[in-house]
């Protein structure tokens, strides 16, 4: 067995239907008396419900979180935090609401309770991001990692099908890269395999029956596993490419992950025999067809299949390949610019990887 290090963050996870009904007790357990609820405008209804459940432990709602955490939103929210003297942040929603809470916590060290309602996994990570003058700065700081995460599948039954399956593919991507990243370890490998198995099986079933609580519980479980992998080990080429395509070309976060993943597995295939064996076992495919099977899953989910579908222009591919070789993340197969350019061309065309 290879030597390894394993860092685990202390975090309380509360999982189950209607678990948000205990939110007040969770806030009190943190010794908080002034909780500020943070959401996107689209989740204001559920933010109000939480505000009601908190009663006199709430100091109000900040419902203006948006994607990519613009610095202006952070400053507006910080002003409110100071004014109401908030001593905990309740982030309800996806990576956008949780991302804003993290940006506030980064400056104030105020603890976060996260109530995720998508599958992208931000709630389990110490990774923060803030966008200023069109550039997204990211960093890693344990202070922003939520201290409590409440997974309540009831809150996800209304998550639109498209966001459900694309953020679910995002969670699969976390698990895949956790299998071959440099600092992986046996515990994270087990979690990643279970995450891939769970999500691969459950995402198509969301389309058939989006309001089924059992299906939503399985998907949320898979997303917790994906977030745990993302928050515990480094990522590799796939996350680097998605960061470039989102950050420099404005492509949508979760859809980009869905499109790019099969091609990164294709790129790495000859260098990740153990990871391929695990993925094949998790999704029930032949090892040489793991990339193709993930492509087929995306096709079956009816999501965009190519970078062209997402609005990238063919003339951007050269620049994207250039950016991919600057400050590269660790990757099991060395980063070769012409091969990366080829990968991007395939992803641009949406051709099934063989
Ligand atoms: P999101 O938070 O942007 O939400 C997408 C939309 O879905 C929003 O309009 C929201 O109001 C709506 N929504 C969320 N839950 C809903 C529900 N249950 N029912 C109905 N509507 C709902 O989406 P996301 O994919 O979770 O987050 C993307 C952002 O998170 C990106 O900015 C990405 O960079 C970031 N992210 C960060 C990390 C990290 O570790 N820091 C990890 C993953 C993603």
What's this model, at a glance?
With 354 residues, this protein is of the alpha/beta class. The protein contains 13 helices and eight strands.
Quaternary structure state of the chains depicted: single chain
Helix content: 40-55%
Ligand roster = nicotinamide-adenine-dinucleotide
The CATH topology of the largest domain turns out to be Dehydroquinate synthase-like, alpha domain
Q: How many domain modules? A: 2
The number of distinct helices, counting runs of at least 4 residues, comes to 13
CATH H-level homologous superfamily name of the largest domain: Dehydroquinate synthase-like - alpha domain
The total of beta strands comes to 8
CATH top level label of the largest domain: Mainly Alpha
In CATH, the architecture of the largest domain is Up-down Bundle
Portion of residues in beta strands equals 5-15%
SS content category: alpha/beta
Radius of gyration: 20 Å
Element order, helices and strands? EHEHEHEHEEEEHHHHHHHHH
What coarse outline follows from CA principal-axis ratios? Answer: globular
Main beta sheet, described?
A: 6 strands, parallel
